[in-house]
Amino acid sequence: MKKLVSLFLTLMMALSLTAAPAQAAVPEKTVWNLSAIYPNKAAFESEFTQAEKQISTLAALRGKLSTIDRVVDYYKGHNELYRLIGRLDSYANLQVYMDLSNSTAKELSGRVVNLSAEASARLSYALPELFANSAVFLDEAAKDAGMAPYLNEFTRDRINSAHTLPEAEEQLLQPVYLLQNGAANLFSSLVNSDMPFPNITFPDGTEKKADEINYNLVMTGEYTQEFRKEYSNDMLGAYGQYRNTLAQNLQNQYTAITKIAAAHRYNSALDAELSSGDTPASVYNSVFDAAKQAMPVQTRYYALLKKSFNLGTIYNSDMNMSLCKASDITYPYTDAQTLVKAALAPLGEDYAAKLDTLMNSAMDVYPAKNKLSGCFTMQVPGTHPYILLNYNNDFDSASNMAHELGHGVHMLYSQTQESTYNQGVTSLTSEVTSTLNQLLFSDYMMKNAKTEEERQYYAARELSFMKASFFTQVFFARFQESAVQEVENGKTLTTDKLDKLWMDAAREYLLPGKSIVINDSFANGWARIPHFYQGFYVYQYAVGIAAACNIADRIESGEQGAVEDYLTFLKAGNSGNAVELLKLTGIDISNGSYIQAFTARFERLLSEFDTAN
Ligand SMILES: [Zn+2]
Q: Which CATH class is domain 2-164?
């Protein structure tokens, strides 16, 4: 029942199931109150029963989907089921994320998973039956007034129906899905539990693991070039010890998605992913053209980095360095709320009121014992979304809050759509709203900085964020596509082959010219990326940041109609495909011209440092 559940889970970013460190008792408004979903457990049980009845009502439409009225009934009823399962699922899982050791909540969550599976099995008749009707009938149905709230969903189902298999054939494919999930699970178990990372002595004498937990801290913090290099070599070397296992595992993963796509009569695994989300291939391809155009600003970035820190040589382990030193300014939560609200004030009073709603009732703010790490926003049908943070008073915490509030307000606006399906938001459009907020926030902080140093700090943070969201993701996307193509062409993903594909993609999109010297361990990088087990996801981050730059420019320059266009886009929810929806903001993501706002902004931020040096 992937579709049913995933609609509400698309925005759970950075979900690594590890608990955050404990923190002392916190005031109540910074902890979730789930009574906005159900006042008590009895209310949960009552909707659970309602959902079971709804499944039976929909199952009873079997054999009747040949009149338009019954088709409308089906979509209407199915959306009601979406709504119920979304609420049940949120209520159970939000409790799990607050306390990963809560076995009662896990049991509740398990019951919702089983309910979804039951719905999936009993309603699997519906789409094959519906799309066995004549094209004339289906065209008529699409035009029917009663279908209007469900048209986007119907259109996507119709596109996908050409790729639907009879139930028996779908059953035969189950072992291939198991292979796909197995590879993803093996990756997670190996790198999160079993893989031994070596100890490393930090400059202050403490001994820690050279692992992913401290990686960002070291790569972006104030350490010597030698220490960064040593850390990076040690950590990537640990992955290197499992190169053959992880290469075979990627081979398994890509064999599975390739076979599944071919069985459903798609041209390729990439085609399957794009078609099922109704995303034209031009959107995907344009990202690579855009990155080519943007490469000169990356070259300039590294030239400035070299100059700012007096580096004779830049190694790949220096690439995540920020252009200026860390700041010791802190951003307590309530201060950050005020700053974020001020930064987003140009979006208007209605947007501000929605921010208040979320800040007053939707946030679980601080790290706590057994709480999930990272940040996410979860949509809950019928009430406000719930936002999880692990706030620790630094700039990134404040910026992440602005990010999650972008998702949250988008979800509140999309509730103006009638059907539950259209109220959902897809990852491609949603990442635009969250990254836009981060841009507006750091621009506001730059504008209001008290010193030149502080101003440069914000500019440097924005540049790092833009670089990581765009160039790194395009590099990942290119590597992944070539690796999948190798498998599609019947080749084997040997470690040597993966090293070469990784280096080729890096040379193309990550390492401008010959300005960066590569440590030997760099080639192991393909072995450590969890996104390579999650379909073709990463290109969406690149589109998201570039689109957000366009919208930010329009809003910040005070362009007439810019805010109205943006709000129209937010209210449109999931009522069209990403190209149609983003057109509402004046951007065409089907060609790479949208990159100009990204490169111009990048140049502008770089010039903050040119004048100072
Ligand atoms: Zn996000």
A: mainly alpha
